[in-house]
């Protein structure tokens, strides 16, 4: 039956959360159908599949929907057991990876978004907070990885941590351009710097990244929109 | 090798309660250490340097932080008894989705209910009840979110039941009137020793909330 094992991803190129799921599916070489959603005109299917949040990404596997990118990634890892394994087998290491995934997902994302959308003092404060949190992650890398060297550098493997880092900070050079501020300083956060360099070198990451101009235009749009509504 | 399990906790914390319930369900012996959050122990700061928060689960000297991660860890390590997460990956994804929903909504909205007034409080109450109704929908006719037995979502949500009385008094509303099925579910959970022994008395929680309101200067 052609319908067996049918996988559909509802997403939008603008969403870093959808990007995470796209990366997970492609890493595991899982064939899937992609539906680009217009967030201003959401498809009836999306509303049916994610009635709680009405957001992307939604993964549909054999007609059954799953929402929330991190829930989806764990589902993918548990259902398609081929390499690469996105979360470690060892339960303690898995707990650690979940902790840092949650840190990047909640803390770094939120602060980055605030910095993107603010100006003046509010922006300065957000950027300072972002740097502080990056320092915490830098220290954390020594806890997560042996000698602080991510597995992507030692053996080229990409897991859930690399997926969330990539979706948030993969385009950091473009984010720096739009904000006019250095975010990833190789002197202050050398481990994170080399981690991101290695992630961005992966052919899969290069292939799936939208053209720089498109990303810059999106970042500028998000920023200008936010600044307009906050001063209105 | 003897398993050494320590829990750094604070009695009114719903996040700590989740871990207490999970440990009790699995029949795990552990040492409970009450933290004074105004004077955090060196152990807490050492074991959770990133957030400096409770609960912290210490298993054979190694710390696990964040309650959802702790409950999953406990379920995975002591997997032979009282499984909390379903064995089917799809059902597991759904359970994780709803646990994440509880984390996104219930704590923050509940907090707004007892810390705000007027329009802001009314908005929080409305969204709080809407969220509980969505959870009621997910529960359906099952005795527990986990089906016939206590599961992951039950463990994640039921601690807030000990705070409902405080929310009701502060918000001047009845949760049972709006969500009778959810209250029936909560009472069903409380029949289990693992839950009843892990949740503090609701009057005690209300007293604690009144103390906090005074300390923060909230009427």
Commentary on this structure:
The complex is a heterodimer of chains A (232) and B (219). With 232 residues, chain A is of the alpha+beta class. Chain A contains eleven helices and four strands; from the N terminus they run E-H-E-H-E-E-H-H-H-H-H-H-H-H-H. In chain A, strands 2-1-3-4 form a four-stranded mixed sheet, covered by helices on one side. In chain A, strand 3 (58-61) and strand 4 (64-67) form a beta hairpin. Chain A starts with 6 loop residues before the first strand and ends with a helix. The relative contact order of chain A is 0.12. The model of chain A has no long low-confidence stretch (mean pLDDT 94). Chain B is an alpha+beta fold and 219 residues long. Helix content of chain B is 59%, strand content 8%. The longest helix of chain B is centred in the middle third of the chain and has 27 residues, at 89-115. The mean pLDDT of chain B is 97. Chain A binds chain B through residues 52, 61, 64, 66-68, 70-72, 74-75, 78-79, 91-92, 94-95, 98-99, 102-103, 136, 140, and chain B through 50, 59, 62, 64-66, 69-70, 72-73, 76-77, 89-90, 92-94, 96-97, 100-101, 134.
- Please give the oligomerization state of what you see: heterodimer
Strand content of chain B: 5-15%
Number of helices of chain A: 11
- The 3D shape of chain A can be described as globular
Proportion of helical residues of chain A:
55-70%
Structural class of chain A: alpha+beta
Mean pLDDT of chain B: 97
Low-confidence stretches of chain A: none
Tell me what portion of residues of chain A adopts beta-strand conformation. 5-15%
Question: Biggest sheet of chain B: strands, sense, closure?
Answer: 4 strands, mixed
């Amino acid at each position: 039956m052609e319908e067996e094992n049918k996988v559909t991803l509802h997403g939008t190129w603008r969403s870093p959360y959808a990007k995470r799921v796209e990366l997970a599916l492609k890493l595991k070489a899982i064939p899937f159908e992609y539906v680009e959603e217009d967030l201003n005109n959401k498809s009836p299917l999306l509303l049916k599949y994610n009635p709680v949040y009405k957001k992307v990404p939604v993964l549909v596997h054999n007609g059954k929907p799953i929402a929330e990118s991190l829930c989806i990634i764990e589902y993918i890892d548990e259902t398609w057991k081929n390499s690469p394994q996105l979360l470690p087998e060892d339960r303690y290491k898995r707990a650690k990876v979940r902790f840092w995934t949650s840190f990047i997902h909640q803390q770094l994302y939120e602060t980055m978004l605030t910095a993107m959308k603010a100006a003046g003092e509010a922006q300065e404060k957000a950027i300072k907070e972002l740097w502080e949190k990056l320092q915490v992650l830098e220290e954390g890398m020594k806890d997560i990885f042996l000698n602080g060297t991510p597995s992507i550098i030692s053996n080229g493997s990409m897991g859930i941590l690399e997926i969330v880092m990539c979706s948030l900070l993969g385009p950091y050079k473009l984010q720096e351009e739009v904000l006019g501020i250095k975010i990833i300083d190789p002197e202050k956060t050398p481990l994170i710097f080399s981690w991101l360099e290695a992630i961005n070198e992966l052919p899969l990451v290069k292939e799936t990244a939208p053209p720089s101009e498109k990303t810059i235009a999106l970042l500028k749009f998000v920023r200008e929109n936010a600044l307009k509504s906050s001063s209105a | 090798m003897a398993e050494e399990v320590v829990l750094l906790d604070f009695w009114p914390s719903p996040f700590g309660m989740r871990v207490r319930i999970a440990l009790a369900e699995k029949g795990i012996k552990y040492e409970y250490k009450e933290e004074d959050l105004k004077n955090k122990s060196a152990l807490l700061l050492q074991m959770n340097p990133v957030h400096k928060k409770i609960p912290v689960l210490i298993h054979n000297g190694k710390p696990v932080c964040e309650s959802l991660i702790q409950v999953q860890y406990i379920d995975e390590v002591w997997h032979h008894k009282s499984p909390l997460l379903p064995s089917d990956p799809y059902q597991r994804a759904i359970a994780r989705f709803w646990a994440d929903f509880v984390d996104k909504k219930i704590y923050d909205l509940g907090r707004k209910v007892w810390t705000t007034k007027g329009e802001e409080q009314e908005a929080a109450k409305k969204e709080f009840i809407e969220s509980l109704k969505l959870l009621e929908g997910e529960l359906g006719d099952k005795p527990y979110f986990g089906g016939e037995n206590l599961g992951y979502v039950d463990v994640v949500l039921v601690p807030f039941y000990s705070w409902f009385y405080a929310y009701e008094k502060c918000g001047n509303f009845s949760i049972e009137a709006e969500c009778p099925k959810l209250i029936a579910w909560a009472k069903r959970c409380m029949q289990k020793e693992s839950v009843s022994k892990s949740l503090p008395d609701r009057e005690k929680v209300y007293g604690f909330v009144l103390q906090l309101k005074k300390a923060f200067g909230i009427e």
